[in-house]
Amino acid sequence: MAGPIRMGGLVSGLDTDTIIKNLMKAEKAPLNKMLQLKQSEEWKRDQYREMNNLLLDFRKASEGLRLQANFQKKAISSDNDGVVSVTQKGTPTLSSYDVNVTGLATPAKAASVKFTTSLDSTTPIGETFSFTVGSKSIDVAATDTMSNVISKINAQSSTTGVTASYVQGDKSITFTSKATGSAASVTIGGAFGASNKLGLSAGTVDKNSTAFAGATAFQASKDALPGNVKINGIDYAFTGSSLTFDGLEFNLKSVGSTRVNMKTDEDAIFNSIKGFADKYNELISKVNTKLTESKYNDYKPLLDEEKEAMNETQIEKWEAKAQSGLLRRDSILSGALTDFRKVLTDRVEGSGIDPKFDTLSEIGITTGGYQENGKLYIDEDKLRQAISQNGTQVMDLFTKYSADTDRTKNFKESGIAQRLYAQVNNSIKDLTDKAGSSAYLSDKSVLGKELRELDTNIRSWKERLEKKEDSYWRKFTAMEKAMSQANSQSSWLSQQTG
After folding, report:
1. Residue 414's domain spans which residues?
2. What is residue 439's predicted lDDT score, i.e. its pLDDT?
3. Which residues are in the Flagellar hook-associated protein 2 N-terminal domain (predicted)?
4. CA torsion, points 16, 17, 18, 24, in degrees to nearest 10?
5. For the chain, what is the domain count?
6. For residue range 317-372, what is the model confidence (pLDDT) as tens digits?
7. Is residue 281 part of a domain?
8. Same domain for 260 and 273?
9. In the prediction, which pLDDT does 243 show?
10. CA 183, 185, 190, 193 torsion: positive or negative?
11. Mind listing the pLDDT tens digit for each residue in 265-309?
């Protein structure tokens, strides 16, 4: 459907389009404020969600301190790694193991025999003859090279069970059985005369061989032999180079004795606690940056027509200031940090808690003052000493669980990590209630509701402005028509009285 006819100053000579645009600027002022407010609210929502993601990452990185298992990890060490090294495979039940390796296992051996030749790999042999490997005949032509002969032997290996290899350095050919163990053998047959350029001789190498006439070297085949080790005085046979016992894999390297010790992995515990402190300091630093960020009240979100008059760099700089300070002194974030400080500084009470180890400061972890926003500091020597000498108390300080339904009592009787986990969850919920989450399509948050209301009001204002603009155009068009009629009448009168 065509729109109404607009007459733009054809009769009056007025710049109607500019006049109406200027009139509409004043009419658009409330809409522009709503558009700027919507952009600010969207930026604020996104910044809340960014803070929420920081909390989610912190929770994931530190929640392991709630679990006693992470304070009970064991480190395994051998007093002599040259004899035995150890890898944990299950759950060992003993704290130490006396190990005496009395004999190493030997693997099964293949049969092999080596001959020295007078040829390199590419020189033609120059004579024709045949020999056998096992039951297969190998026919040699005068034009064959050593490489050709090796290829012919190996082409029959699936039948003979024997492969051949040539070493250029000492001009040798070696026959090796593919199988290992006492059943393996290599049999070479044929009438080898004085002109035997391959240097071969007839014979068999098997488990009973003690010699092979004409061969440079040979290896009789042998079955694998088990090794023997005593663990805590009990004999055990093993094959290969390892033995699994009581949740441990003993890697047996040489004959000798050693002791394998199981002890608490103090380094792992220390690193977990230090990692938690580092992650916490990173979290509160980023949150405090948002809480203290400067706010520039003169920098409002840019409207589309304002962006058209600026380049990308100018827009980027402007919007950086427009977004700054949106969460300055935010009550949710500042309240979360206050709660975190309380979690970390209040004593842990209740049965099972040693009063000498009921605060973080007693194991070497202190908090900076309010000027440092509660940053954690670690006395590494003191913390390591506490872990080494009072590991159970350190574990209880972090992991103590309270099932009390009274919130105040539950807080007092819960370990530091348990408290912090609960408080981080509360803060995540508060931020999600305020700003929603990008993980969910439906946004039922406070800001989500406000943005939906703004969208409704913006649509309503746009419709109102369209009607207002149409009204201006109708009035100016009516004026143009009236002036046109007046001009026509004036011209007619002039003609009549002319």
Report:
1. 17-69+268-292+328-447
2. 72
3. 12-107
4. 110
5. 3
6. 999 999 999 999 999 999 999 999 999 999 999 888 999 999 999 999 998 876 67
7. yes
8. no
9. 94
10. negative
11. 999 999 999 999 999 999 999 999 999 999 999 999 999 989 999
**DSSP-derived secondary structure for 260-317:** EEEEE-HHHHHHHHHHHHHHHHHHHHHHHHHHT----TT-PPPPHHHHHTS-HHHHHH
Q: Are 436 and 443 in contact (CB under 8 A)?
A: yes
Phi then psi for 94, rounded to 5 degrees?
-110, 160
334 and 430 inside one domain: yes
Q: Can you say whether the dihedral through the CA atoms of 485, 488, 492, 498 is positive or negative?
A: positive
Give the angle subtended at the CA of 455 by the CAs of 454 and 461, to the nearest 5°.
Answer: 85
pLDDT at 1: 44
CA distance 164 to 198: 13
Rg (CA), the chain: 45
Contacts of 296 (CB under 8 A, 6+ apart): 321, 322, 324, 325
- C-alpha–C-alpha distance, residues 53 and 469, integer Å: 45
CB burial string 103-138: b at 16+ within 10 A, e below: ebbeebbbbbbbbebebeeeeebeeebebebbebeb
Q: Reduced to 3 states, what is the DSSP secondary structure of residue 203?
A: strand
Residue 429 lies inside a defined structural domain of this protein = yes
Q: How many Cβ atoms sit within 10 Å of the Cβ of residue 25?
A: 11
The encoded tokens of residue 448 equal: 């989500």
> Which tokens belong to 426?
């509360």
Terminal CA-to-CA distance of the chain, rounded, Å? Answer: 46
Which range (7-16, 76-85, 118-127, 446-455) has the least confidence?
A: 7-16
